[in-house]
Structure prediction request, 152 residues.
Amino acid sequence: MDELFLDATIVPAIEANGKRRALQELSEKLSADNGLDPQLVMDLLLAREQLGATGVGGGVAMPHGRVAGLNKLAVAFGRLKSPVEYESPDGQPVDLILMLLAPEDAGSACLKALSMASRVLRNNDIREQLRTAEDAGSIRKILAKKQQAFAA
Prediction:
């Protein structure tokens, strides 16, 4: 949990014309980096979205799910070139997506990770830094630094 963003897949410029395409782009990268079946991951995420959209407000979405056979948390962060409609509670389109996949038996680890990520992304200043960061390395540094600050 201390290094939630250390091994995260970072995609700084996703081109997508809608929610489904944004999820697909990010899930394909996350799947490739973690040896997962991209179709399985996409099906899991779409099923989760049917339960309720994972847009949390402020231009942020946090799609998540549990995956059989996964042995550790898998995290991806994507920044969209253009915001997409996402059925967020505040009605705002989404341009920042934090995707979290957890092992099927992760128990509270998944909830703790979502809670930590939510605390980081709830901050207006952090979201603005993420929107203006130059590249994946800069995004990773912002996320890791802010996570450490919130964990302290």
